[in-house]
Design a protein that fits this description.
four-stranded antiparallel sheet; 23 helices; 12 strands; 50% helix
Length: 683
């Protein structure tokens, strides 16, 4: 008689359900409490904000994806599949249970498939029943306006999908270890360890390599494929989550299960209780633990003072000893592990060689400058973004804008934005000037590294990004924090070139001629200019920019008299399509003359001529005043340069108040000490 081997064992399956039905019931109760119960308690009118005026909400814009329910779903899916895997596969980690289960006339394949199916059923039943309740709410409770059927199907479908994926992950790690606690640690480490490790290494590289930027955004497409981050994307209503992501997660689930079974088939029962179930994996575990702990400790200690010091080296060695020999103790279940010192020395030697190589720049990273003949465009600017983030140049401006400081101001149209980044040029001569600046930075490396941070003495140390777009499409970028006074000889020809000025100033690169809707000038007060005045001011601003020298463009301490803002509105969306500011300094002579001639400058800028006195107030009580015009001029200059604070802590804050000739008062700011030229009324 021929015996048959079944992939599924009904008796084990029913036994699993009898043992763990309570967990499935508890899961169902929690789902009901956090979704249907909250919906019924709040009522449909409470969620009126989700209802659109004419059309029902889309799948990802509905109540389920735009409320706390998505947070609950994420939390439950991170925890529940791991707990189910622990309950179903714990027998692998207990020697007596492992021996008893495997003595049954059931193949390992049948055990694996049956336990996995049991877990899927235990998780799917509560989700499906909860979905049925939500459908009843939609059909009979009047919630379809905020929670349509398509949204419910998507919400339930995503829960089922991620339950399978996030169940396969801990099942996979259950085969690699004989310890339940380590199974949990391995599972969650697989979600976050890649990003944490890359972030730590990237930060340390930025401290060692001159020009390296602490930025791993180029790995974002890879990190986004990690199941836990796919989960967050999906339940946060990310419209980019689609069919390709679903297919990827299904393939990942199948691969995890296939490899989990292959490991299970070769696993020895005697490894139950061991930290690692396979001999060949033990060195991997040991060195991975050592590397992770060392990176964590070194990154944390270096971040405290933003440098690698002798203390960092001591902490590294301490972490290496603890991690290396600690993992050995865990695997061997013994404290007698110090005879394994040879492997530790090999690890230290490898780290020392790599560190020395990076420090010595053996690969020429710090000194590399691309061949200008192969560069299509280049940029030198203050923006935190570079050519890598922007579309190809040259192109005309489009209906999108972004600021030079706050990258969160990106509009939804940025994907179609064709505006070049700050300081991007395609003229070969200007590209050569940028390369000369780059070469000067490299030559003054040590001096730049030792330059002080910005302070009251006028020291300047700013972030600057140099990027090259190669003709083959490759992007070459370096990021520096430098004192520009050190490389002034190389910067001066670049800043004074007309081609670079067009790329440097926002008003030139963001607008074509007078392609703006409105303009406003503001300083202490604001003034909206009419169309003709705005066009003339724009023309004069461009003329003044052409005459600016290096000292005018990049002064150590700008004396900004006022700011002119140009704006282009998107008539269809009624939003700002493009905007640009230009700071008017005393060097904008033509612009200032025009503003004075048309009595605009006097309306917005406080000047000594229209200030009667400046009072100094403490706790709303006048303690001094300044009437001397020269002292008033100095105070107003300090105000324009931002030398006054907006606010300070402490009981005695000295508020500086300008009293105009018409009696109007204007606060210039506060100081934590009395102004050195203050004259009290008694004097």
């Amino acid at each position: 008689m021929t015996s048959k081997t079944s992939l599924f064992n009904k008796s084990i399956f029913l036994n699993n359900l009898r043992r763990l039905w309570w967990g499935s019931l508890l899961y169902f109760i929690i789902l009901v409490l956090v979704m249907p119960m909250q919906i019924s308690m709040s009522g449909v009118t409470y969620y009126a904000e989700f209802q659109q005026a004419s059309n029902p909400p889309s799948v990802f814009d509905s109540l389920l994806f735009r409320n706390s329910f998505s947070l609950f779903a994420i939390g439950l899916l991170i925890v529940v599949p791991v707990l189910v895997s622990l309950l179903l596969f714990r027998y692998l980690h207990v020697k007596k249970q492992a021996a008893a289960i495997h003595s049954l006339p059931v193949t390992r394949l049948s055990l694996f498939v049956t336990n996995f199916v049991s877990g899927i059923v235990l998780m799917y039943l509560p989700i499906l029943l909860n979905g049925i309740i939500l459908m009843c709410y939609c059909t009979f409770g009047g919630y379809c306006s905020v929670m349509p059927m398509t949204s419910i199907f998507a919400f339930v479908g995503l829960q089922l999908l991620f339950s399978a994926v996030l169940f396969a992950v801990p099942v996979f790690f259950a085969m690699l270890t004989g310890n339940t606690i380590l199974q949990v640690i391995f599972t969650y480490a697989s979600y976050y360890l890649p990003i944490g490790l890359c972030t730590g290494v990237s930060y340390l590289m930025s401290l060692v390599l001159f020009g390296y930027r602490d930025n791993i955004t180029f790995l974002d497409p890879l990190f986004e494929q990690i199941p836990i981050f796919q989960l967050i994307r999906a339940f946060n209503g990310d419209h980019t989550f689609g069919a390709i992501d679903v297919i990827f997660l299904l393939i990942l689930t199948v691969l995890l299960l296939v490899f989990a079974y292959l490991f299970y088939r070769r696993r020895n029962l005697e490894t139950a209780g061991d930290a690692i179930s396979f001999q060949w994996l033990k060195p991997v575990f040991k060195y991975l633990v050592t590397i992770c702990l060392c990176v964590l400790v070194v990154t944390y200690s270096s971040a405290l003072n933003n440098q690698i010091s002798v203390l960092t080296g001591i902490l590294f060695l301490t972490a290496a000893v603890v991690a290396y020999f600690g993992s050995e103790m865990l695997m061997r279940k013994s404290f007698r592990v110090f005879h394994c010192w040879r492997g530790f020395l090999v690890f230290i030697a490898i780290v020392a060689v790599i560190s020395a190589g990076v420090k010595a720049d053996v690969f020429g990273y710090e000194k590399r400058i691309p061949d200008i003949a192969n560069v299509s465009s280049a940029s030198y600017g203050t923006e935190d973004m570079n050519i890598r983030d922007a579309p190809k140049f040259p192109v005309a401006p489009a209906s999108a804008s972004y600021g030079t400081e706050d990258m969160n101001s990106l509009t939804e149209d940025f994907a179609t934005n064709t505006e070049r980044v700050e300081g991007e040029v395609d003229n070969p001569e200007t590209i050569q000037l940028i390369a000369d600046v780059h070469r000067s930075i490299i030559a003054h490396k040590q001096e730049l590294l030792e330059a002080p941070y910005p302070d009251s003495a006028g020291n300047r140390r700013y972030y600057r990004t140099i990027s090259y777009r190669m003709k083959d499409g490759e992007i070459f970028t370096r990021h520096y924090r430098i004192d520009e006074a050190v490389i002034e000889d190389a910067l001066k020809p670049l800043y004074e070139s007309q081609d670079y000025k067009k790329a440097y100033f926002d008003v030139v690169r963001r607008f074509q001629d007078t392609d703006f809707t409105s303009a406003e000038i503001h300083s202490s007060y604001s003034y909206s200019m009419d169309s003709d005045t705005a066009k003339e001011v724009y023309r004069l601003v461009l003329a003044d920019i052409d005459t600016l020298g290096y000292e005018d463009i990049n002064p150590a301490d700008k004396d900004v008299l006022c700011t002119v803002s140009f704006t282009k509105m998107d008539d269809k969306k009624q939003t700002v399509a493009r905007s640009a500011d230009i700071h008017i300094t005393p060097n904008f002579k033509n612009t200032i003359a025009y503003l004075r001639e048309h009595n605009i400058y006097q309306r917005v800028v406080i000047s000594p001529a229209n200030v009667e006195k400046i009072m100094v107030s403490v706790l709303n009580e006048t303690v001094g005043e300044v009437t001397d015009k020269e002292a008033i001029r100095k105070l107003l200059e300090d105000y324009r340069k931002g030398n006054f604070l907006k606010s300070v802590t402490g009981e005695e804050n000295y508020e500086i108040i300008a009293v105009m000739e018409n009696g109007e008062q204007f606060s210039l700011g506060v100081m934590d000490t009395a102004p050195y030229f203050m004259k009290t009324p008694a004097e």
